[in-house]
Amino acid sequence: MSRKLTALLLAVLMLPFSAMNAIADEGDPDLSINEISFSDDSPTGGDTVTITAEIANDGGASGLMGVNTSVSFYWDNNYIGEDTVYVPGSGTADAEIDWRAVGGTHTIKVIVDEDEQVRESDEENNMEEEDIDVAYPPILVLDDDNSSNNGGTRTETDSYYIDALENMGSMGYDIIRVESGQDAPGYDTLSEYVALIWICGSDYQSGDTDITFTDNDKINVGDYLDDGGSMWVIGQDILYDFDYQDGARNEGDFEYDYLGISYVDHDRATPTVVYGVEGDPISDGVAYGADPIMVDFADDLDPREGFVKVLSGGGDYNISTIRTEDDYKLVFMTIDFSSITETEDRDELMENMVEYLAVQLENDVSLSRFNNPKNKETIEPGVMSTINVTVRNRGTANQADVDVYIDVRCRNDTDYRFMDDDTVSINAGEGAFVEFEWETPDDEDYEYDINARAY
Fold first, then answer.
1. Euclidean distance between CA atoms 281 and 277, whole angstroms
2. Which of 134, 300, 302, 377 is the right S-S partner for 263, CB 3.0 to 4.6 Å?
3. Which pLDDT tens digit goes with each residue over 96-150?
4. What phi, psi does 98 have (nearest 5°)?
5. Could you name the CATH architecture of 24-134?
6. pTM above 0.85, yes or no
7. Model confidence band, residue 38 (pLDDT cutoffs 50, 70, 90)
8. Torsion (CA) 252, 254, 255, 258 in degrees, nearest 10
9. Above pLDDT 70, what percent of the chain?
């Protein structure tokens, strides 16, 4: 009984104390935000932008009450940090913070006295927002290694990649950290970048869990690569998560279709030296010492047709890295980049990877996707249907005359054929929707193949 009464008494006694700061008086000072400005109004992802917020203080009834206060900064509700400033009565002060910009349109939010440590006459005017447009850089680094800065517990590896990119000097890149167990950004975000570096580190969960590449990740990556994207994927246990059994991988498996794996031996370990392949654009002449910084479960691979060896333990022993450029550019690597022991070797490999994946052609137009109809979709016979495709200009030059063609053929009637074309203009780095009207034949239960091309 005594303990219960004491707890109740404490709660009652504490209430006036905790409520004290919340009781405002009209004579108290009022803090507000006059303006949010940026050191660069048109940055590119990876640039450092100084965000400045001008904080005003009316000084209260006397106009003379100065205040020390914290100022918090956010981008799209992601915390950047805070500054502390003294704002004189009837005056202003600038709070500042540096932000590493990320490509896209973002909302910068500033909150003065977020924790309500200052008693004010008006607490409702302490937040302001300002939008900023950030150009997309060539490369997106996806930190998906489930380490502490992702909310996980695995070995942190991303700093090795970032250091090597920084040592290149002029290469712009964004970093997006994928929260533990969550999906990475969707296709609309991925498609803005020339190349992706997807870091999975030592993340895994035994047996058909797809914890490193979620089901949504597979769909978005497939769409990105089908659109002609470029990608470097690194993870010693990605394949183990897909299927923990050693053996063949087949058409219809994501790792076969997109990562180029025809056979995998799990947990063969990282070679002490990884050797390149003569004439390979990434690994010609290299021999890198390797020593994993994590528990080592690197896999041994056999590439499917269309993929070739890049790095191995020598000859066809311990093939750890493969690549393709048939329909898209992809490098898949089962030893971690951090395992390469010498900084100079990591810098060289990063530069070779970036040059291979991210070099843009002046003229590079490709068909992106069918928006309508979808694959195997059923449509009504004898009606006007819309065929909608996306065409993307991945080159560095604007294209004024992009020719788009469609060709519809019937599997049940070889004499049937419908063709149409259109010409569109697409600026560098942008896409366009192109629509065609197709009057479907009256025949029911017929199947059609729709092909599209863009030049």
1. 9
2. 302
3. 999 988 888 899 999 999 999 999 999 999 999 999 998 888 899 998 877 766 6
4. -95, 140
5. Sandwich (2.60)
6. no
7. very high
8. 100
9. 87
CATH topology of domain 365-454: Immunoglobulin-like (2.60.40)
Asked whether residue 246 carries a pLDDT value surpassing 80, the answer given is yes
Strand intervals (E) in 65-164 = 67-75, 78-87, 91-100, 104-112, 127-134, 139-143
Map out the domains of the chain as residue ranges: 24-134, 139-358, 365-454
* Angle at alpha carbon of residue 210, lines to 138 and 159, rounded to 5°: 40
- CA-to-CA distance for 324 and 311, rounded, in angstroms? 13
d(CA 389, CA 438): 13
Helix (H) or strand (E) holding 424: strand 417-426
3-state helix, strand, coil in the chain (%, to 5): 15, 40, 45
Backbone torsions φ then ψ of 57, nearest 5 degrees:
-135, 120
Q: Which helix (H) or strand (E) holds 195?
A: strand 195-199
What sign does the CA torsion over 298, 302, 305, 309 have?
A: positive
Q: How far apart are CA 51 and CA 77, in angstroms?
A: 15
DSSP code of 450?
E
Per-residue pLDDT at 91 = 95
User: What are 24's two structure tokens?
Assistant: 């405002």
Per-residue pLDDT tens digits for 42-97: 888 888 999 999 999 998 888 889 999 999 999 998 899 999 999 999 999 999 99
Q: Which residues fall within 8 angstroms of residue 123, CB to CB, at 6 or more apart?
A: 24, 116
Give, as one character, the DSSP assignment of residue 148. G
The topology (CATH level 3) of 139-358 is: Rossmann fold (3.40.50)
Q: Do domains 139-358 and 365-454 have the same CATH topology?
A: no
Tokens of 382: 């004898």
